[in-house]
Amino acid sequence: MIRYVSFMTVSILFLLILGCANIETEKYAPSDTDIVNRNNADIENEMKLKEFIKNTETGKKDSIRVVAYTKEGDPILTDLTFNGEQLEITEDTTRDEYGSGEINTFGCEKILVEGINTLSLVAKVTKHLIT
C-alpha cells in the first residue's frame, strides 16, 4: 500500500511539473512547394510565384503559399488562391509573436508586382471576406 501511495504521489508531482513547464509550440516547416522569403534577399521557389502571376493573367486556376519571416524569425503565411476569375488572399499571423494573431481573408481584383526581383505584391482589395 505504501508503494502504491508513493507511486501515485510521484506520478502526480511529475504531471504537475510537466504541465507547468513552458513547452514551446512546434515551429512551422515550409513545404517544398512554398515560396519562402527569409529576409536575406533569397526567395525560394520564386519561379512558382512567377508562374502563379502568369496563371492569374491568363485565367488559369492556381494557388500558392508564401511564407515570409519577420525579423524575429516568426513565419507569416499567406495563401493566394485564384479560381479562374477572382483572387483570394488569406493571411495567417497566428505564429507571429508580435503580430495580430489573426487569420484574415480578402477578395482581390489583381496582383501588381513592384520591383523586378522582389516579393512585394500589392493586391487591390475589393472586399473583406468573413471566414
Describe the overall structure.
The protein is built from 2 helices and 7 strands, in the order αββαβββββ. Strands 2-1-3-4-5-6-7 form a 7-stranded mixed beta sheet, with helices on one face. The chain has helices at residues 2-20, 46-58, and strands spanning 35-37, 43-44, 62-69, 75-82, 87-92, 103-113, 121-129. The protein is α+β, with helices and mostly antiparallel strands and 131 residues long.
Defining key terms:
alpha+beta, seven-stranded mixed β-sheet, 7 strands, 24% helix, 36% strand, disordered C terminus
Question: How is the biggest beta sheet arranged?
Answer: 7 strands, mixed
What's the tally of helices?
Answer: 2
How far apart lie the N and C ends? 56 Å
Percentage of residues in helical conformation: 10-25%
Categorize the overall geometry: elongated
Query: What integer is the average pLDDT?
Result: 76
How would you summarize what this structure contains?
The protein is of the alpha+beta class. The protein has helices at 2-20, 46-58, and strands at 35-37, 43-44, 62-69, 75-82, 87-92, 103-113, 121-129.
Topology:
Layout: H1 2-20, E1 35-37, E2 43-44, H2 46-58, E3 62-69, E4 75-82, E5 87-92, E6 103-113, E7 121-129
Parallel strand pairs: 1-3
Antiparallel strand pairs: 1-2, 3-4, 4-5, 5-6, 6-7
